[in-house]
Amino acid sequence: MAGESSFGKKISGDEVTDFDAFYRENYPKVCSWLKKKISNPDDVEDIASDAFTYFYKNLGHYDQKKSSPVTWLYVIVNSRWKNYMRDKKTNDDIEEIDLPGDSDIEQAYYLQELRDAIADALLTLPERQRTIVILNYFQGKNSSEIAGMLGMSAANVRMDLSRALKKMRGPLRDYHL
């Protein structure tokens, strides 16, 4: 951390130097975003408060080189909202990620973070499974085409693909894919 502020933690740069000011500015925006997703105002306040509490308690883990504090806050809010939806057993209605902001910077950061997490998860796979995932998801090949390319049966390709995706779920669980 760069130093101390009135709330005990300071993030250098022009983004967050005072948590109270950050909270006052962003709490209404977070609640507004959550109200579009959740009808119960008490749940909106609970999720927003939980997100800000997590944000504050984990400022020591924040890396300003990776994102702005607002981006990091919305990643936390989005995660808390999805946890709420899962806990309410309504995750069938979860929409695609829709991060608010004056620009697409927040969403671009989230997508870059997701790409990095997928790349890291791919690296944990054995080479054959990694190749199958890449051919299927990134090059659009079906199991028959992959089988012909790798000299194996389509059934084995599907089995390896299933095993690979199961292995990748752990490292990617925070993204609720």
How would you sum up this structure, described in words?
63% of the residues lie in helices and 0% in strands. It is mainly alpha-helical. Helix 1 (19-35) runs antiparallel to helix 2 (41-57). The longest helix is centred in the middle third of the chain and has 19 residues, at 69-87.
Briefly say what this structure is.
This protein is mainly α. The protein is built from seven helices and no strands.
Q: What's the pLDDT, averaged over the residues?
A: 78
Radius of gyration: 20 Å
Q: Work out the helicity level.
A: 55-70%
pLDDT < 50 stretches: 1-10, 12-16, 90-95
Shape: elongated
The beta-strand count equals 0
Q: How many DSSP helices? A: 7
Proportion of β residues?
A: under 5%
Name its key features.
mainly alpha, 177 residues
